[in-house]
Amino acid sequence: MRTLQGRGRLHLFDLDGTLIRGSAAAVEISRQLGLTEEIAALERGFLLQGMAPDEFAVQARELWSALTPEQVTAAFEGAPWLIGIREVWADIRAQGGHCAVISLSPDFFVERLLDWGVDSAHGSQWPSVPFTAPIHRPGILHARAKVTIAQSLCAEYGIGFEDCVAYGDSMSDAELFAVVPMTVAVNADRHLAGLSRYAYTGGDLREAYELARKSTA
Prior knowledge:
217 residues; alpha/beta; Rossmann fold; 2 domains; six-stranded parallel β-sheet
C-alpha cells in the first residue's frame, strides 16, 4: 500500500453541514419541491425532539412523493458545497490515502459524490427516484452506523482508527469522533465541543484538510 506521510490514512467525511455548509441534502431536495417549511419541521423533530432517523426518512419520503431525478440533480448541483472538495480528495489519493463519505442522507444523493473522486460513498438505503417503493427502515443509517462503516473500511485497508481522520459538524458525528483520535470539526455545532482535535469555520475544505495534514506530516 502506498502511504501518506508514512501511513495510508483514511479520511472520513460527513455530508450535511460539513461538505454542504449550513444545509443538508434533505433541505436542498425539499427546496426543489417548494417544501422548505415542511422539511424544517421534520429537521426540528430530528434535531430537537429525538425523532429516529428511520422515522425521519419515512416522513420525508411522503413529502417527496413527486420527486423526479431532474430535481435530485438540481438539488445536488445547487447545494452550497464547500469549495476545494475535489482537490482535497485528489490530494489524499495522490498521496496514497483513501477518502470516504458516510452520511445519514439518502444514498441516491450521497453516491453522486463518487463522480467527484471520493473512494466510497455510504448513505441510507432509499428506493430509486421516482419512488415506487416504501422506505426499508433497516436500511436507514444512524449515528452508530458511521462507526461500523468506518470499522469495515479500516479492515478493508488494513489500518486502525489511529490511521483515520474524521470530519464532521454535529451530533451524528459524535460517536465517530469519540473513537477516532484525529478529528476536525467543520462549521460545527455544540455537540462536538470538546470532542475534536481541530476546529475549522469557513467555506474551503482545503483549509480544514490542511489542519489534519500538517499534524500528520
